[in-house]
Design a protein that fits this description.
Blueprint: E1 5-10, E2 14-20, E3 29-34, E4 39-43, E5 48-53, E6 60-62, E7 81-86, E8 89-93, E9 97-111, E10 114-128, E11 134-138, E12 153-159, E13 167-173, E14 176-180, E15 191-201
């Protein structure tokens, strides 16, 4: 005999098919067809929408993330993917920063707790006049976390003029990235554009 009851229910905003497993060890599940075109797969015992299909975009949302293959570990679930732009703020530098650092635009991709960012800085005659030169860029899209036993996240930057051979390293603290002059062979020709890239962990 059947171990679950099957119900069809109509309401003002949706029609749903209920599988009532209260007679067995399973959960109660709903398959809902919403008036707005969405499709929900829902666990009725805890009233959560585990999977939602959005018809206007074709997107599918999984409440707690995605697991691949035969993996069942919650820690391995891909719970977030995001990409977008942000507005970096050109903050303070030291006296070794020279030229005009006018504006910056930023782009990022976030997969789980890993963020990769790209920053384009425009200006004129930008360079560092000593090996101790640095520039702070604030307003990163996510605050960096620093796991115990690790050092600051590093990245790199380079100028848009090959002949100037301008480049160096970066490190991230919280929501700011510090652009440092190269330790040796620093160049004072200056550039009109600087590209920065870095990858770091966030909460």
């Amino acid at each position: 005999s059947p171990t679950a009851d099957l119900h069809i229910h109509n309401s003002a905003d949706h029609t749903r098919l209920n599988i009532d497993c209260s007679n067995s060890s399973g959960d109660n599940w709903q398959f809902q067809s919403r008036n707005n075109g969405e499709f929900w797969l829902r666990n009725d015992d805890n009233s959560r929408n585990d999977i939602v299909v959005y018809p206007s975009t074709g997107y599918v949302a999984a409440k707690n993330g995605l697991l691949f293959g035969a993996d069942t570990a919650a820690a391995n679930a891909l719970s977030d993917y995001e990409e977008g732009t942000f507005s970096p703020s050109i903050g303070s530098g030291n006296n070794s920063r020279a030229g005009t650092w006018s504006s910056a635009i930023g782009r990022y991709t976030k997969i789980g707790n890993m963020v990769t960012l790209f920053i384009d800085i425009t200006g004129s005659a930008m360079y560092f006049s000593s090996e101790r030169g640095y520039q702070v860029i604030a307003n990163l899209p996510f605050a960096a976390t620093q796991p115990t036993g690790t050092v600051n996240y590093s990245g790199s930057w380079s100028g848009n003029a090959v002949a100037s051979s301008v480049g160096g390293s970066t490190y991230i603290n919280n929501t700011s990235i510090y652009i440092h002059s190269a330790n040796t062979n620093w160049n004072t020709n200056g550039v009109s554009g600087i590209g920065v890239t870095a990858t770091y962990l966030t909460a």
